[in-house]
Amino acid sequence: MRKRVLARPKPIIEKHQEENGEIKNNGSLEKAHSAKKSPGFCKNLCKAFQIVILIVLIPPFLNYAALQKEQAELRPIKGELYDIGWEQKLFKMCQGKGPPTVVFDSPIGMNSDVWAHIWPAIAKNARVCIYDRAGLGFSDRPKENSTDSDGTEMKSNLQNKWSPFTVERMADDLYRLMSQSSQEPQPFLIVGAELGALVAQFYAQMFDNQVLGIVLINPLSEDLFEQDGGSWLHYWYSQLIPSFQSLQLSAALGITRLALILGLISHPMAKSGMPEDVENRQKFLLCHPRHLSSVVDEHHFMNISFSQLRTIRLLKSLPTNISVTVLSGNYYDEQMPSYLNKAWAKSEQNLINKHYPQANHIVINSSDRHMLIKNYDAIIEQINKIIRLYKSKLKSRKF
Q1: Residue 343 domain-assigned?
Q2: Domain named AB hydrolase-1: which ranges (predicted)?
């Protein structure tokens, strides 16, 4: 009989090696398994990245395409673009018969649509012209002659004259628009609100032989930034301008258009009874980075504009034959802090007392800084009074 031979146990070292081998094998299996998973993970990551890129890029492209289409569709049919020199074009629309010609100049950062409630009623009695300042609405941004030499009077070297987006340049642009690019019947009655009132004053100082009167609605005064310890100066440059810069960025990214579509925001003239075409134009401009860039620039150079007006007042005074009418409301703007309203009211009163003590100052009841779209009937009445007075004087001279 054979002896039963018992199997010898494996050495402890070999056992450990086998166990280690199993661990190594298990590790290689896990690596292989993860290798199979990694292509799927990378694919999902790429898809997510593509979606993010599309979300970031599509709104700006869609907004740009929509702006190109709307640019042609929304421009008023009766308005035209006038070359005021060096191929810079300003939008202007006129109706009615003159003289006189009533010229409307808009508040800061706003296009000529703001007068939509007012100018049709005035056009029944006089020639009426509304226009967009450089860069706003449908007007080109300011252009400069890059050459050192001057051209003709119509094309003088603007680079050597006025800085863009200042009141000097705005008044010069208006002169070229009304008296050189087109020949509107004089004299002019210039109706300006806020910054437009600043332009009206500067224009009357420079071209007094063309002007019968100016109507200043909630006028900006050159000492506004000095009132109450510079409260408006701080608000203007630390809050107001950054808010418009944010709007410009939002428009460039296409976010503004999406917000308008979703009803998250509204344009400045919403719920004011404006015609549908005006409503659509305001939405268009709120989505237009170029327009909003000019809004920022008009605000940015305001201190320079104030300085320019101070200088021209020192050089010459306003002729006494030019009538001055100031329209202001008796209500504060509820959207602004009371200390800013008080500083504005002080600067406006200083403007009248110091420079226009003989002005016809009319306070319109239940009105604030938004009277152009809320209390326009009172404005129409005052402008028509001036027109009737001019026409009656004209008739008396003939007899």
Answers
A1: yes
A2: 108-240
Write out the two tokens for 150. 């001057």
β-pairing, 89-95 with 80-83?
A: antiparallel
Which pLDDT band holds residue 302 (cuts at 50, 70, 90)? very high
Do 172 and 259 share a structural domain? yes
Q: DSSP for 23-64?
A: HHHHHHHHHHHHHHHHHHHHHHHHHHHHHHHHHHHHHHHHHH
| Gap between the Cα atoms of 320 and 316, Å rounded | 12
Q: Measure the CA dihedral 49/51/56/61, to 10°.
A: 130
Interatomic CA distance for residues 300 and 117, integer angstroms: 29
CATH number at residue 96: 3.40.50.1820
- Asked if residue 349 and residue 260 are part of one domain, the reply reads yes
* CA dist., res. 166 & res. 171, Å (int): 9
Omega of the bond prior to 219 within 30 degrees of 0, cis?
A: no
Statement: residue 86 has pLDDT above 90: no
Specify whether 129 is located in the same domain as 182.
Answer: yes
Regarding whether 268 and 238 lie in a shared domain, the answer is yes
Per-residue pLDDT tens digits for 214-264:
999 999 999 999 998 999 999 999 999 999 999 999 999 999 998 998 888
Tokens of 166: 């200042």
Same-domain check for residues 168 and 134: yes
Residue type, 49: F
Final residue before a domain boundary, out of 41, 74, 107: 74
12-74 helix and 276-286 helix, angle to the nearest 10 degrees? 140
The string of pLDDT tens digits covering residues 325-356 is 999 988 888 888 899 999 999 999 999 999 99
Last residue of a domain, one of 74, 104, 122: 74
Which of the 8 DSSP states describes residue 361? E
Beta bridge partners of 192: 105, 216
